[in-house]
Amino acid sequence: MKWFRGKKDNEVNLDTQSELNESKEELEFKQQLDEAVDEVYEKEMKKINDQLDQELLIALVGEVNAGKSSTINKIIGKDVASTNPQPGETVSVDPYNIEGLEKIKFMDTPGLNDPNDDNPRKTIEFIDQADIVLFFTNAAGTVFSDSEREKFQAIEKHNKNILLVLNKIDAAEGIESLVEFIKGQTGNKYEVLPISSRTGENLDKLKASILSLLKKRGKDILFAKSMKDKSQTANRWIAGAGVSAGGIGALPIPGSDVIPLTALQVGLILKLAALYDKPMTKDTAKELIIVTTTRTIGQTLYRQIVKLIPGAGSVAGGIVASSLTLALGYGVKHAFENNIAINFDYILNQFKKFKNRKSYKGE
Fold first, then answer.
1. Which long-range contacts does 308-314 make (Cβ < 8 Å, 24+ apart)?
2. Rounded to two decimals, what is the model's pTM?
């Protein structure tokens, strides 16, 4: 499938008569981008494939009836764990997979205080290998009881990639005080996320925190693909890339190093393609980067850039680099989510909108 659509054919195809009349500088610029994509594509694709080839292990631990199963079902967007309003419904600690994503394994324990002596041992064995531990406590119960504290300290010895989840906040009061209490009990070393698996409150924040922790372990893409709602994750990736591009501080122009920004942009569109299960070959990525750059800046590319950006690292350079990256990301996302060809007029409008900002920071 080819993901391109322009207003006119001669505005998109790279071998048209208009481009035969381009200046030497402009042709050199396109050649430089072409070579840059060649250099970074395989590296960026390998990073993504390495992630997708790994197993992701997630441990859900806590006392019985803390809402672990219902929370993971809400995060993923479908029923992947058995739930029941009766306490202690989960009866096995055997890891299970999400249908269609065999690389992700969850362990939804029956509770650290379960009377089955074998279960705590299985739990600890899994925790030793887990990429992330979601430790649940019940806001409507005895928050971080002596038993929970003891078990938490035992888990902490085996794995410190922990997020503390204060569930059922819809059935409790004084949530801020409870959060501070838990932080104090755990040495202020871990993030505490108050949520309601019943109402969905703060689940987006929990998703973001999970992805942030998994990114440090190089496994955020695999988890992001498991979620039914991918839009917010895509937005975070695009916004982050926009800030990074602004930090690079210069559009890739002749005479400057194009690799950092090109690698950032290629990495972004490949991550989006992986997230939405869309094709993105090297030739497609190359054409997308080149056409986006030339369409957003214009046919008098080199002269305009020199006039606009007097030097690398300038505020103007940061804004242009950030705006171009944001426009590219949102254009690709828009096409993928709507199952349509990439529209460069849409990308151009996005670029104009972002370029009118006074700063690239905070996107």
1. 309/250, 309/251, 309/253, 311/250, 312/249, 312/250, 312/256, 313/249, 313/250, 314/249, 314/250
2. 0.80
